[in-house]
Amino acid sequence: MKFQKITPYLWFDYQAKDAAEFYCTIFKNSRIVASSPLIVQFEIEGLHFMALNGGPKFKFNESVSFFVNCVDQHEIDHLWNALTENGGSESKCGWCRDKFGLWWQIVPERLMELMRSSNEAQSKKLMEALLSMDRIVIEDLENSVKV
Questions:
Q1: CB atoms within 10 A of CB 127
Q2: What is the pLDDT of residues 38-63, one digit of tens each?
Q3: Number of compact structural domains in the chain
Q4: What's the pTM?
Q5: pLDDT digit string, tens, across residues 73-112
Q6: Residue 35 and residue 39: Cα distance in Å, rounded?
Q7: CATH of the domain at 52
Q8: Is there a single domain that holds both residue 51 and residue 115?
Q9: Which residue range is the domain that position 118 belongs to?
Q10: CB-CB neighbours of 16 under 10 Å
């Protein structure tokens, strides 16, 4: 595997390979590149990752998350459901935690479009709608800014 300039390096207790396999089943264009008892190298959508079986010393938290830009509601729902099932959890504004404790932001491209095209009053309504959501629903965002 050719390394990119900066590679996310994820520390797991002992489930690095399970996590890599899990992520590769959720995201298209993903694969495990190499695996040993200590380190797993995998790729998601062209981005290289390394995962370490490092033991229980460190845990993931919200201070680091992966932002996933989604093209439509189907992609949001697919990723959200896959990441939050079997021990994952939901949070606000499109944030969720998977069963391994890693944090994700599942965000539609449409949200960025609405943020750029909104006036001050619409921006306020958009933010109110967003803050009321766990999983983001594009139709609800669009309805929040209708005049």
A1: 14
A2: 999 999 999 999 999 999 999 999 99
A3: 2
A4: 0.93
A5: 999 999 999 999 999 999 999 999 999 999 999 999 999 9
A6: 6
A7: 3.10.180.10
A8: no
A9: 60-147
A10: 26
